[in-house]
Amino acid sequence: MSRKTQIVVVGGGAGGLELVRRLGAKFGRKRHDIILVDKNLSHIWKPLLHEVAAGSLDANLDEVGYRGHCYRWGYRFFQGSLDGIDREAKTISLAPVHDEDGRELIGQHTIRYDILVLAVGSISNDFGVPGVKEHCLYLDSREQAERFRTRLLNHCLRVSRAMMKNPDADEQVRVSIVGAGATGVELAAELYNAAGALSHYGLEVFDESRLKVTLIEAGPRILPLLPERLSAAAHHELTELGVRVMEATQVTEALPRALVTKDGQTIEADLMVWAAGVKGAEFLSSLGLETNNRNQFLVRDTLQTVTDDNIFALGDCASYVPPGEDRPIPPRAQAAHQMANTVFDNICRMQKSRPLKHFVYHDKGSLISLSRFSTVGSLMGNLVGGSLAIEGRLARFIYTSLYRLHLWGIHGWVKGTFLMLIGRVNRIVRPRLKLH
Ligand SMILES: Cc1cc2nc3c(=O)[nH]c(=O)nc-3n(C[C@H](O)[C@H](O)[C@H](O)COP(=O)(O)OP(=O)(O)OC[C@H]3O[C@@H](n4cnc5c(N)ncnc54)[C@H](O)[C@@H]3O)c2cc1C
To answer: Fewest C-beta in 10 Å: which of 30, 247, 338, 407?
Structure first.
């Protein structure tokens, strides 16, 4: 009996999970063995993490368990964290898995591959600024978002109690966010949405005025990837909410409860979030594949790594500079989605010994959700004849479409649509905030 072709996808995130669903649906278990490896047991779409952090989304409701998903779509799942690739033997190695008490559950093990796809995402880039690792929180994973939420709620509770004891006390929860790209801006607005709802859930004397959010951006304006008009509109909206927006301000050090800026200011804060760009995890540059200075795998236009034809990389962990351009494709969910489609096509073509497709990125624009307050963004493409700035309800509808696309990508359109509807019902029948 001939050996099955083993296709291993490492990372079940925005790109990897869509890919493995399509591979499973296409090849099933007959001639191929499709394997997903992820360090976690469940998937949550990363662009939702700012809502998890603010407490306005319960991650339990939106997570997708890999074991149930793989049973449905005909692939196998292994929990484990990639820590090595042996390209000679065509195997990957996974670090041991431990339980909550640190006991080893699964020892170090290896998995054979014929085709390997790396889709392990990114982590926040602290650019080596002293003190950031020790004192700032990141929004790279569900655990980190939940840690932020717990600390935020604790501070809100502290302020609420202090105000009850002494109504004249000027107590505040001070949150500083470094980086005013999509993540920082969306988090700032979402925090005001959440703070406004806390008074309904037992923190009677807490309201938005007790929250002091400072958004710090090193560049000359917030949302640098959006047209200036939209960046100004978002700036105005945030200021109206109460956010202190500091542009052209570079943070040079993080202290236990303060950030120090290049121009000598000290910004005190109870919680500090670092959201100033992304890079690949450090270990990616030691796997024997060529990487750039941000630890991202260099890939060709077929999305095969420049080092190995049998290894593809996609999404945030891949660096692809399209011909004639000087910058790589930005780390976005839409890029991961489009790359997953190209890798799927190319794996199918490889099976038939056909020439591989070239990846072409179609930038559909950027949309930034300012929670329930507003949505701003720009649409790109042939349909709108270039770039079109949009705001309001239409922008909100298109913003949620990106998630709808992802749900269809990982569940198929029937179940994806049902889940979207269930999500809407949940927003009505469940509490507005997750408070535990
Ligand atoms: C708060 C926030 C808001 C965002 N908003 C938007 C938005 O509005 N629009 C947009 O386009 N993009 C947005 N992004 C960016 C977007 O989330 C990412 O570009 C996208 O998720 C990248 O997809 P990916 O598949 O490359 O990686 P991810 O979705 O990050 O998935 C990586 C997967 O790899 C797994 N993994 C990591 N390391 C290992 C390992 N060593 N071994 C095994 N598994 C591993 C992880 O557990 C994870 O499941 C946002 C990001 C954040 C944090």
So the answer is: 30
- Which of 230, 247, 274 corresponds to the end of one domain? 274
Nearest to 278 by CA among 17, 46, 43: 46
* Same domain (yes/no): 148, 265: yes
Pairing relation of β-strands 211-216 and 173-178? parallel
Residue 416 tokens, joined: 């994806």
Question: Measured at the alpha carbon of residue 355, what is the angle toward residues 91 and 114, in degrees to the nearest 5?
Answer: 10
Domain boundary among 298, 323, 351: 351
Going by alpha carbons, the residue nearest to atom 23 of ligand 1 is 14
Read off the pLDDT of residues 182-228 as tens digits, 9 standing for 90 and up. 899 999 998 988 887 776 666 666 777 889 999 999 999 999 877 78
Range of the domain at 86: 5-122+280-351
Look at residue 338 and tell me if it is in a domain. Answer: yes
Which residues line the pocket of ligand 1, CB cutoff 6 A? Answer: 10-16, 37-40, 43, 46-47, 49-50, 81-82, 119-121, 139, 182-183, 186, 315-317, 331-334, 336
Q: Which atom of ligand 1 is nearest to the CA of 369?
A: 8
